[in-house]
Amino acid sequence: LGLALYASGLxxxxxxxxxxxxxxxxxxGPAGLQAAYFLQRAGRDYIVFERSHAPGSxxxxxxxxxxxxxxNKQYTGKSNSEFNLRHDWNSLLSHDxxxxxxxxxxxxxxxxxxxxxxxxxxxxxxxxxxQYNTAIxxxxxxxxxxxxxxxxxxxxxxxxxxxxxxxxxxxxxMWVPNVVNxxxxxxxxGYETVSINPEDFTGQTVLILGRGNSAFxxxxxxxxxxxxxxxxxxxRVRLSxxxxxxxxxxxxxxxxxxxxxxxxxxxxxxxxLEDLAIVKDKKGKLHITLRFYLENRNISAGIDSITLPQDExxxxxxxxxxxxxxRCLGWKFDFSIYNRSLRMMPGxxxxxxYPQIKPSYESRGTRxxxxxGTASHSVDFRKSxxxxxxGFRYTTRAVHRLLENRHHGVPWPSTVYPxxxxxxxxxxRVNEASxxxxxxxxxADIILLRENATAFEYLEEYPIGVLAxxxxxxxxxxxxxxxxxxxxxxxxxxxADKDVFYYNRAVGEAQHAWQSNFLHPVIYYYKHLPTxxxxxxxxxxxxxxxxxxxxHIVEDFLxxxxxxxxxxxPLRRFLENCLSTDLRNFFAESCFxxxxxxxxxxxxxxxxxxxxxxxxxxxxxxQHAVKAGLLQDYTHTDFSGDRPPDSHHGSQExxxxxxxxxxxxxQHLVNAKDE
Length: 675
Hints:
The protein is of the alpha/beta class. It is built from 19 helices and 23 strands.
């Protein structure tokens, strides 16, 4: 039986033997393990290939100085696990409470070794199907009409073993160092190999190429032992607190900015690295010059025969020689293992280091090939957190849901609620949902309205870039309009040149909510599902096309959108205007009155009182209404006449009060304010 089962998984193609799985995942980093978790929970046939002997091999080496810049907040003052993930940037999603990162480190910025241990436990405790020491060196296609996507993916490892799968998930990350070639670049040390012992830099003068977190991390490590550090890059420094992009320079690494601005020898320069050239003198010192000075010159002839910039401009900024030059230019995707048949092409412009993918994270060149994790960051580069664990854990789940619908007929998870729960459902999600919070302007909650707006269907964390394809991608229908709930920063609040600490930077009044700067919920209402053309022609910097109506919930200093007047009431009135209905909740006695005075009952009465359900008044509510001047207090009324206080009528009145049925004239029922 074992031989038969093994043989059933083997296919002979062109003389080679292929081991088959429905899903192949390349890479057992955070994204690969996250994908494996969802596939395993769904009971799918999958395998994860990892070139190293353990998961998370990238974190075994990087960051070189071992301190992560992903926050690990231990305490939030709340016990809601979903809310707490907003401030836990390292945990992967799972059902196992043991696999929260805070159990592995108490440091706000943890050591990378803790991440390595965490990923090892994640793979082992969940018994994920990971095949270690397997480096995939070639991927190609085999056309087959019986395959899910019209072709199979054929993979070959370093031992020439072959594998076949119907869907390929690439989670190999970005690990190929970015290298700039210019005359003298052979004298440059790479971030991946440079010494991390500060004593090796004592009394030296250092030039760092690059201006990201790896460059500043390297500078921070040697700041106290060097003569001075210069840093040169093509673009100006981008501070994450100004751009609101977590991949830009974080405060934990920016000590060199202090020493630069306070004139303590260190400095930053801007220039195109490809225009540089490095010349080494007889003492081993490295001199910076420009490429055009070396035209028609032999660089090996010696520095004395080469014109340096300071020969013409005696105050040239980098005229002092350097002892070391270090390259810290980040990483790029490895395209080398993919056959041309897959059409895995690099992006253009500032996303050329990433493969080209659709907003659904599927390759633009090959159906059935999805890119996950850091390599999928082209979808939201410099916009959101899709290149980091706290972002791609949610986009990976979104991809899994798309695959479940496409290949297994499992629609996108949803919950149906009566329309009376619309306001509450939105308030609950914007106050606790982590995926909306981390992947702002990328993932959205979708509310699909049922006919006559009597109910709605709630879908969580759908990629808004493929909103026009919602019915096809989710298996759900949007026939009667929809709401889209996303989180956004203010339109003009983020940027390298923005002063984000100016006076009056925050908005507090609900009527000015559309001017909110900090992250806040925005609700778009569409009478019809936007088309692909409308998505393409949306206004610049808008995540979505122009809606039929839009509502901003005013920003909140505590990110707590539960204020009755500032947050909930304006939202409810917006929803009521869109739906032309009354979303208030009424007590049973008010519904009773409406039944006699209105042709149509409010939804809460239709779905509550009319079905012999609803809310009864209580003694506490009645006292509150009296104090507020909404009801007349009858408890101290002096009833005239011959009827004794302990008469049958008095007993009946007492009984009715005990059952929460207030006795008051009809006009007071009309004037009473409902909840």
